[in-house]
Design a protein that fits this description.
Blueprint: E1 2-8, E2 11-17, H1 21-41, H2 49-158
Antiparallel strand pairs: 1-2
Helix pairs in contact: 1-2
Length: about 160
């Protein structure tokens, strides 16, 4: 513990603190500067009033600094969240690009498959035509065979 004598507004105070004497004296200088500012700006401020007004000004500075520090933390948190969301957006865009590429591949495969299907349908129609032609040829041959068979039977019967 350090015991330090300080003077604020021409009054001597003894401060007992864990901090170094130089630190305590720098605090004292700061308070004296604030008291002197109050005395310069105020008219006929006497007694303890300059110290109280200086303390209020110091508290005002402290709370504003505290609020700006909290806002800084909030801003930092928001910036972190923005960065996370931007990374998510990049991931989504990459996924969309992959999906588009995949979709293009699927579309190309579909086109190829449709062409193969069209070619196959043409071949089926051709083969159906061939089947119909062969069936007609078979009917003709059966008919010719039946006529020849009757002719042969008629010849055999006539002998």
């Amino acid at each position: 513990m350090n015991k330090v004598n300080i003077t604020i507004n021409s009054r001597v105070y003894t401060v007992v603190a864990d901090e170094e004497e130089s630190y305590i004296k720098s605090l004292c200088e700061y308070v004296n500067d604030k008291v002197n500012t109050v005395l310069r700006e105020g008219s006929h401020v006497m007694g303890e009033r300059p110290i109280v007004l200086a303390a209020l000004n110091i508290c005002d500075e402290y709370f504003k600094l505290l609020n700006s520090s909290e806002e800084s933390v909030k801003t930092s948190e928001l910036m972190t969240r923005i960065n996370e969301l931007e990374e998510e957006m990049r991931d989504i865009k990459r996924s969309e690009a992959k999906a588009r590429d995949s979709g293009a591949e699927v579309a190309e495969e579909l086109n190829v498959t449709q062409k193969v299907l069209e070619e196959t349908e043409e071949k089926v129609k051709f083969l159906e035509g061939q089947i119909t032609l062969k069936e007609n040829q078979m009917k003709k041959q059966r008919s010719d065979f039946a006529i020849r068979e009757r002719e042969l039977l008629d010849m055999l019967d006539s002998k």
